[in-house]
Specification:
about 500 residues, alpha+beta, 8-stranded mixed beta sheet
């Protein structure tokens, strides 16, 4: 899609129904809007009241609500998609069309890029004939055909911040929507948006008060966090230095033996490949040292201090290679094979330090739990948000003992540990999750006992041509190149 239709003729060519600026609102809608703004009803109740009113005043088959910024009061009544969007629908009859996806994976949600963009621009969009959507709106057309939708009337609930979601009416036959249905939806959408802004403000205030009440406990956790997080890069520095020292020592010893055995006493030349590896390891040591300094700043930012880094587009593959290199020594000692399947063109929206810290924590756990002859693999899969935003899900998979359902529900809580014979304080996953969520992402785990675990984090992502970084992206200059761990 190159541009959005504007004038009535262009709208009609897209199967869209032009909407007049002044339309009659029903008395019931005016009363309901007042109740939404002033009444004590919950988020679920006001959405249900608006949906049932829309069914009554229109000839829609089904009305669907989507929530993206607020959590419903009764989540069990909603279908969750990828942790960001929740859907619920009300049908006129049991046989009415349904727009609920067949799976609960985030990529299963309809994106509707054209209609979503129109909704954000005009607040209300009326699609009278989905079959008239042109070729450059193929995604919208394919998704409406998939669910049997021939006409749609929708409003995007957008306030001062991110969108709260949407409210839509759909039917399986084409045709224009009544002026009353359009006017009522526009009024109710504005009332719902205002109400949800109030709810978000109240919840933010409650969260701030609760954080104030727990300031002393947070300070204690913060200092524990600093101690924990300093240990990971320091261990990487020591481990890499030990490997470097051992390689150089062995080379010197071999050189001396060759010199003693040589008839003319000449020393053997040092292998150039070994020199390259020494340079590579030295570069890794410098990057780990820089990372150690940056981690302190990141932790201060998480604890409420001044921000030290700006969220931007960061190359994922170099960050993964850095984390793999830092953990090469402990992985070799544990007999764990590390592998990256991340393509070089992937960029994610976060900070460079936070990305490397999260990767180091998750990979460190994978190394600790995979066991001898185990594997830890990093890859990335893609999904789209409810409004068409592309998200990258970075996965760290291991073949360790796995987690039970009860353990998976507790694993991200601070100081929670399930293997007390292993070193650690139980803070790494909690810190990683806070860093990811601070930048607007999500973190989770999928695990089966006896079959391993997949820890993942999801942030906005994009794919750029290799060798042509987009403006605003961040990449690490690699003086000596980067080398993945050698297969065991």
């Amino acid at each position: 899609m190159t541009s959005l239709p504007t004038d009535p003729e262009e709208m009609a060519a897209y199967g869209l129904q032009p909407i007049a600026s002044r339309l009659p609102v029903s008395e019931d809608a005016a009363t309901l809007a007042t109740s939404i703004l002033e009444g004590p009803a919950s988020v679920d109740d006001v959405l249900e009241a608006a949906a049932r009113h829309l069914l009554a005043v229109s000839d829609a088959d089904t009305v669907t609500a989507v929530l993206t910024s607020l959590t419903p009061d009764e989540p069990s009544s909603w279908v969750a998609l990828g942790g960001r969007a929740r859907l619920r629908e009300w049908r006129r009859t049991p046989g009415s069309i349904s727009v609920l996806p067949c799976t609960h994976e985030p990529e299963a949600a309809a994106t509707q890029p054209l209609l979503s963009a129109l909704g954000r621009r005009d607040r209300v969009v009326a699609l009278a004939d989905a079959a008239a959507l042109p070729a450059d709106a193929e995604v919208d057309r394919a998704e409406t055909e998939q669910y049997g939708v021939a006409a749609m009337l929708a409003t995007i609930l957008v306030g001062e911040g991110p969108a709260h979601g949407s409210l839509s009416a759909v039917r399986g036959r084409p045709g224009p929507w009544s002026p009353v249905a359009i006017a009522d939806l526009r009024l109710l959408g504005a009332a719902l948006t205002a109400r949800f802004e109030q709810v978000r403000a109240r919840r933010s205030l409650a969260d701030a008060l609760e954080r104030g009440d727990h300031a002393r406990a947070s300070a204690q956790q913060f200092f524990s966090t600093v101690a924990h997080e300093l240990r990971t890069p320091v261990a990487a520095l020591l481990g890499t230095t030990e490997v470097l020292a051992a390689e150089v020592t062995d080379a010197v010893a071999a050189e001396r033996r060759d010199g003693e055995d040589s008839p003319d006493g000449a020393a053997a030349a040092v292998d150039t490949a070994l020199l390259a590896r020494v340079i590579d390891d030295a570069s890794a040591i410098r990057r780990a040292g820089d990372h150690l300094v940056s981690v302190v700043g990141e932790l201060l930012s998480v604890a409420g201090g001044p921000a030290t880094a700006e969220v931007t587009w960061v190359d994922l593959a170099p960050a993964v290679q850095d984390a793999l290199h830092w953990l090469r020594a402990p992985a070799a000692e544990a007999g764990v094979h590390l592998e990256s399947q991340v393509p070089p063109e992937v960029q994610v929206r976060t900070t460079s330090t936070a990305l490397r810290q999260v990767l180091a924590n998750l990979l460190g756990n994978a190394v600790a739990y995979a066991g001898p002859d185990g594997r830890a693999v990093v890859d990335v899969v893609w999904s789209r948000g409810e409004l068409g935003t592309e998200w990258a899900r970075v996965r760290i998979r291991d073949d360790g003992p796995g987690l039970s359902a009860a353990q998976a529900a507790e694993v991200f809580k601070p100081f929670v540990r399930f293997a007390h014979h292993r070193p650690g304080s139980g803070l790494g996953l909690a810190i990683s999750r806070s860093l990811v969520e601070r930048d607007g992402g999500l973190m989770g785990v999928a695990s089966t006992e006896g079959e391993g675990s997949t820890f993942w984090f999801e942030v906005p992502g994009r794919r750029t041509p290799v060798g042509d970084p987009a403006p605003g992206s961040t990449a690490v200059r690699r003086e000596g190149g980067s080398r993945a761990p050698a297969p065991r």
